[in-house]
Amino acid sequence: MYSVSQARRLRLSTLFAEVEDQLLMAHRKQEVESQVRDDRTKRDLHALSPDGMLVCNPRDREAAHRAQVEGIATENLAAVTCKRCRSLISGPDRQAKSGGKIP
Is residue 41 part of a domain? Predict the structure, then answer.
């Protein structure tokens, strides 16, 4: 049998464990909610280079794949709305070097 002080300690430790579990579950729920997919309705349309990379971020394969999967990448240069892509595509020195092609 437990003494009175041991019983109190046991109750307190059980109570603290329950509170800790609830806090942990709340934290995990918050993490899951923060990982929800981006649902913005208006997104910039990025230009794809001939090798399938984004013009504004040519070294990031994952960004290029994500843009293609999410439907925000195009080969149609007239439809591009990304400010950086447009400046890289229409820059006078870029067109002169590449013969008017996408960099």
Answer: no
pLDDT band at 55 (very low <50, low <70, confident <90, very high): very high
Question: How far apart, in whole angstroms, are the C-alpha atoms of residue 73 and residue 54?
Answer: 8
Q: Are residues 31 and 60 in the same domain?
A: no
Count other Cβ atoms within 10 Å, centred on residue 48.
20
Nearest Cα residue to 76 out of 63, 89, 64: 89
- Claim: this prediction has a pTM higher than 0.85: no
- Predicted local distance difference test score (pLDDT) of residue 26: 81
34 Cα distance to chain centroid: 11
